[in-house]
């Protein structure tokens, strides 16, 4: 593994309407773990959902995984609670990044909570610019990435929806969607 002081940390944003944002981030997380990097994944929306990627990550000593949030916020009955939960998760993200323990941090679905106005893009971008160690890699996923986050990112990929199985009446499939 390349020594931290010789590494250029990349901030990567995965956004857009198409499928594959989180899957791409998790693939990168497993790649980094394979190189003995310390990996942190914090999920903003998933809550108590059981996912294959979290089960796979539990087999690695160098991946720390937090599936947090109140579930799918577009079905929320209590937006104020979702806002509070998102702020608490954001505080955890900042605390973990400040430890400087991790080589790669994935903030899964943070763009959604930013899009909902629960955490501002300006606040996220300022934290990244001021506090992310220069050698740390950071991935932010979710639809609706803010302009401020896009502007400070090194790499931005927008997934474009061409066709989705859900449109054909096929619901989320284990091993593909979760």
TrEMBL record:
Its keywords, alphabetically, are:
ATP-binding, Cobalamin biosynthesis, Cytoplasm, Nucleotide-binding, Porphyrin biosynthesis, Transferase
A GO molecular function for this record? corrinoid adenosyltransferase activity
Enzyme Commission number(s) from the entry: 2.5.1.17
Where primarily located? cytoplasm
Per its UniProt entry, which superkingdom is the organism in? Bacteria
User: What is the name of the gene encoding this protein?
Assistant: cobO
Its function?
A: Required for both de novo synthesis of the corrin ring for the assimilation of exogenous corrinoids. Participates in the adenosylation of a variety of incomplete and complete corrinoids.
Q: Please state what the protein is called.
A: Corrinoid adenosyltransferase
Could you mention a single GO BP entry for this protein?
porphyrin-containing compound biosynthetic process
Which Gene3D superfamilies does the record match to this protein?
Answer: P-loop containing nucleotide triphosphate hydrolases
């Amino acid at each position: 593994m390349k020594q931290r002081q010789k590494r250029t940390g990349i901030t990567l944003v995965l956004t857009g309407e198409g499928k594959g944002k989180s899957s791409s981030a998790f693939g990168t997380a497993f790649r980094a773990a394979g190189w003995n990097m310390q990996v942190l994944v914090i999920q903003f929306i998933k809550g108590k959902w059981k996912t294959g990627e979290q089960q796979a990550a539990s087999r690695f000593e160098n991946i720390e995984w937090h599936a947090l949030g109140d579930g799918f916020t577009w079905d929320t009955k209590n937006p104020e609670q979702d806002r509070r939960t998102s702020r608490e998760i954001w505080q955890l993200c900042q605390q973990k990044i400040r430890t400087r323990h991790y080589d790669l941090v994935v903030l899964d679905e943070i763009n959604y909570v930013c899009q909902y106005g629960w955490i501002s893009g300006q606040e996220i971008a300022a934290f990244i610019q001021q506090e992310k160690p220069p050698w740390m890699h950071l991935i932010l996923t979710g639809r609706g990435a803010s302009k401020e986050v896009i502007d400070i990112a090194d790499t931005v990929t927008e997934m474009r929806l061409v066709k989705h199985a859900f449109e054909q009446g096929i619901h989320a499939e284990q091993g593909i969607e979760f």
